[in-house]
C-alpha cells in the first residue's frame, strides 16, 4: 500500500519514508526519518533498489528526534552530505544540548513498554547539519507538502501533509499498531493507536495533535510504527481516536499522565 511517490521500509520497530519530489522529468527524493541505530546499510540498500546505487536525497526531514527515528541520521547525513531539517523546538535534542525525558515502563501494558528503560533517551549532535524548518510551514525540497506542528510525543514533533491527495506522514503523533506490545510489533497488527505511551510526556498536547490531524481528513497515512492505512478504516480509526483519546490512549496512571 503506497501513495503516489511515497514508500517506506521498516527498520525493526520504526518506519523510514522515501518521498519522490522530482519535477520536469528529474527524479529527486527526500528521506523522512532515519530508523533505529545500526540501520544505515538497510536504508542504503533500499535507496539503491528504488533510486540507484549512487542516489542521494535532497534532504533528510525528521518528524522528531527519538532514538528509533534518528538512529542512522548522523551517518547518512555525512555519507550523502545533505542537510537535515526538524522543528526548532526539536533542535536542542539534535545538537547535543538536551536529553528527552526518561521512558515510563509502567504504561502501555506490554513487553516493549516494560523494557523501555533500556532504550536510549539522550540527544544526539548533528552540529551545523541540522536546520529549523521554515516558519511558513513549507518543507524544504518537498514542493506541495507542508509541515504541521503535532507536539505531545515530543515538544517539536511534526507531521507532513500533502493537500493535493490527502497523504499524511504522521510520525508518532498517532500510530497504526500497539507499539507497547511485542506481539503487535512482530505481527504489525493494523489498528490506530495513540503515540507510544512509554515515550509520551504530554498527553493533552498529544490529544490536540490527533484532533488537528483528524481535521485534515487524510486519505492515506504512513506512521512511525505500523503499516500504512487508507480510506474508511483510516477515517473511522482517527475519528474514534480523536473522540475517545482519553479512554483509548491516555494511561490511567504513570509518570507523565498528569
Question: Mind sketching the topology for me?
Answer:
Elements: E1 6-11, E2 14-20, E3 29-32, H1 40-51, E4 60-61, H2 67-70, H3 73-80, E5 84-86, H4 91-94, H5 111-114, E6 130-132, E7 145-149, E8 158-162, E9 167-171, H6 182-187, H7 203-214, E10 220-223, E11 229-230, H8 231-243, H9 245-248
Parallel strand pairs: 3-4, 4-5, 5-6, 9-10
Antiparallel strand pairs: 1-2, 2-3, 7-8, 8-9, 10-11
Helix pairs in contact: 7-8
What is the CATH topology descriptor? Metallo-beta-lactamase, Chain A
Segments where pLDDT lies below 50 for 5+ residues? none
Domain module count? 1
User: Which CATH class applies here?
Assistant: Alpha Beta
Along the chain, the helix and strand elements come as EEEHEHHEHHEEEEHHEEHH
Number of DSSP E strands? 11
Overall structural class, as computed from helix and strand content, comes to alpha/beta
In what order do the strands lie side by side in the largest sheet? 1-2-3-4-5-6
Instruction: Report the CATH superfamily.
Output: Ribonuclease Z/Hydroxyacylglutathione hydrolase-like
- Rounded to an integer in angstroms, the radius of gyration calculated over CA atoms is 17 Å
Which assembly state applies to the chains in this document? Answer: single chain
Helical residue percent? 25-40%
Strand content: 15-25%
Largest sheet: 6 strands, mixed
Helix count, DSSP H or I runs of 4 or more residues: 9
CATH architecture: 4-Layer Sandwich
The best one-word shape is: globular
What number is the mean pLDDT?
Answer: 94
Characteristics of this structure?
alpha/beta, 11 strands, Metallo-beta-lactamase, Chain A, 18% strand, 258 residues, 9 helices, six-stranded mixed beta sheet
Amino acid at each position: 500500500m503506497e501513495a503516489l511517490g511515497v514508500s517506506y521500509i521498516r527498520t525493526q520497530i520504526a518506519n523510514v519514508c522515501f518521498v519522490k519530489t522530482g519535477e520536469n522529468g528529474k527524479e529527486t527524493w527526500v528521506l523522512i526519518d532515519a530508523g533505529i541505530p545500526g540501520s544505515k546499510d538497510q536504508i542504503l540498500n533500499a535507496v539503491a533498489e528504488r533510486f540507484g546505487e549512487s542516489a542521494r536525497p535532497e534532504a533528510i526531514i525528521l518528524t522528531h528526534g527519538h532514538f528509533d527515528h534518528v538512529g542512522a541520521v548522523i551517518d547518512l547525513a555525512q555519507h550523502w552530505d545533505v542537510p537535515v531539517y526538524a522543528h526548532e523546538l526539536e533542535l536542542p535534542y539534535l545538537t547535543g544540548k538536551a536529553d528527552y525525558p526518561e521512558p515510563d515502563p509502567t504504561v502501555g501494558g506490554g513487553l516493549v513498554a516494560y523494557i523501555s528503560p533500556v532504550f536510549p533517551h539522550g540527544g544526539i549532535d548533528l552540529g551545523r547539519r541540522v536546520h529549523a524548518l521554515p516558519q511558513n510551514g513549507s518543507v524544504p525540497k518537498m514542493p506541495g507538502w507542508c509541515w504541521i506542528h503535532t507536539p505531545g510525543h515530543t515538544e517539536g514533533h511534526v507531521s507532513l501533509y500533502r493537500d493535493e491527495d490527502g497523504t499524511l506522514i504522521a510520525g508518532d503523533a498517532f500510530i497504526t499498531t500497539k507499539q507497547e506490545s511485542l506481539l503487535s510489533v512482530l505481527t504489525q497488527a493494523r489498528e490506530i493507536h495513540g503515540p507510544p505511551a512509554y515515550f509520551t510526556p504530554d498527553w493533552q498536547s498529544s490529544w490536540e495533535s490527533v484532533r488537528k490531524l483528524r481535521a485534515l481528513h487524510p486519505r492515506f497515512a504512513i506512521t512511525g510504527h505500523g503499516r500504512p492505512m487508507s480510506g474508511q478504516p483510516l477515517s473511522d480509526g482517527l475519528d474514534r481516536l480523536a473522540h475517545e483519546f482519553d479512554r483509548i490512549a491516555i494511561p490511567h496512571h504513570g509518570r507523565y499522565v498528569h
